[in-house]
């Protein structure tokens, strides 16, 4: 075994990540203790590195979640924001004289093929698991597995990527819950649903993506809301202070984790955005 295999790609030894291996069994037990139930519709945001030294890495996390959700639905954001108009790229940008070539040659979004970007190892792993369905939005897709996977993913219009016709709203319709596995409100996608529902006078921005239509690659343009997650931590903290009964906290592996009721969180966030933005 090489040094990189023993320490991980960042050079950190396993014993520096956690005092013992984190296993499918130990994660499943911790998730049950946190309050995850077999019939939950559960939207998960996960940071693999925060959990400790996980034996089996990302697949072990997915396995643990599926082991519990025997009658429920597992959902994760599987966004691919790089399948988009290069004019909006910032991290990193590309030269302006590349724009036309990028638009003309970008491979189309395909649910079974297109990788996630910035979603973490667990979501990237989950999207290709057997039985997982993925929504059709080229930039803001969600993947789902379980009882209501088709209901969550079957509708996802271009111009309502995180609003009332999106998978986020379908989780809301199912009185779903949100699980932070080593993550925080800073990446709480459900708060975008509140942005769409709040009376904020948000502008609509021109977007573009490569998609498959009638079996052919096509570059499409559409408009969607100009959204902003900068104040999500403050909004999330306000929700938790107002509704402590809707939040359960504990540890999975060595990560601080939280289980939250999505519906009251979105409802509170609508009012909070209208009062504070």
UniProtKB/TrEMBL annotation:
Keyword Transferase in annotation: yes
InterPro entries: Amioglycoside_AcTrfase, Antibiotic_NAT-like
GO biological process, one term: response to antibiotic
Top-level taxonomic group: Archaea
Keywords noted in UniProt: Acyltransferase, Transferase
MF terms in GO: N-acetyltransferase activity
Similarity annotation: Belongs to the antibiotic N-acetyltransferase family.
Protein name: AAC(3) family N-acetyltransferase
Organism: Salinirubellus salinus
């Amino acid at each position: 075994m090489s040094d990189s295999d023993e320490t991980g790609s960042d050079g950190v030894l396993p014993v520096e990540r956690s005092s013992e291996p984190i296993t499918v069994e130990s994660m499943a037990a911790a998730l049950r203790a946190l309050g995850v139930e077999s019939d939950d519709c559960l939207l998960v945001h996960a940071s693999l590195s925060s959990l400790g030294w996980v034996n089996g890495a990302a697949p072990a996390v997915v396995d643990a979640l599926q082991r519990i959700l025997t009658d429920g639905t597992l959902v994760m954001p599987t966004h691919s924001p790089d399948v988009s108009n290069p004019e909006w790229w910032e991290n990193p940008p590309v030269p302006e004289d590349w724009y036309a070539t990028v638009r003309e040659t970008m491979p189309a979004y395909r649910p079974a093929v297109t990788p996630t970007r910035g979603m973490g190892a667990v979501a990237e792993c989950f999207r290709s698991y057997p039985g997982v369905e993925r929504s059709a939005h080229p930039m803001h897709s969600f993947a789902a597995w379980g009882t209501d996977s088709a209901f969550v993913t079957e509708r996802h219009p271009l111009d309502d990527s995180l609003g009332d016709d999106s998978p986020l709203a379908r989780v809301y319709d199912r009185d779903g819950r949100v699980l932070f596995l080593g993550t925080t409100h800073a990446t709480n996608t459900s708060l975008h649903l509140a942005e769409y529902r709040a009376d904020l006078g948000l502008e609509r921005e021109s977007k573009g993506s490569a998609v498959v239509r009638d079996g052919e690659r096509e570059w499409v343009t559409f408009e969607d809301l100009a959204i902003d997650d900068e104040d999500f931590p403050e909004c999330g903290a306000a929700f938790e202070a107002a509704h402590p009964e809707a939040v359960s906290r504990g540890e999975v592996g060595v990560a601080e984790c939280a289980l939250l009721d999505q519906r009251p969180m979105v409802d509170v966030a609508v009012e909070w955005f209208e009062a504070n933005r």
